[in-house]
Amino acid sequence: MNHQHQENNSVPNFWSTRYAIGLIVLGGIAAYFLLTEHLAHVIGALPYLFLLACPLMHIFMHGGHGHHHHQQKNPDTSDNKKSREPGDPS
């Protein structure tokens, strides 16, 4: 049997090394403790965040109320018709 091995002289991907796995584990532990220790502060501020979201949504989400719509005017509509008198050729 002939096995051909490719020489791979490139640097290994960082996320596949044991240092990256350790970094991910330490980051997960840090995120867990930050969440458990500061959850009371976040829950205490949650009603104020909802109240703050109301005016922000009012400001940024009012694009669809038709303030900037453009209507094509049909020349046959009553707005564009001149009042004609009987016998007027125009």
UniProtKB/TrEMBL annotation:
Biased composition (Basic and acidic residues): 76-90
InterPro entries, A to Z: DUF2933 (IPR021682)
TM ranges: 17-35, 42-61
Domain of life: Bacteria
Region described as Disordered: spans on this chain: 64-90
Keyword Signal listed: no
Keywords: Membrane, Transmembrane, Transmembrane helix
Keyword ATP-binding: no
Official protein name in the record: DUF2933 domain-containing protein
Classification lineage: Bacteria, Pseudomonadati, Pseudomonadota, Gammaproteobacteria, Moraxellales
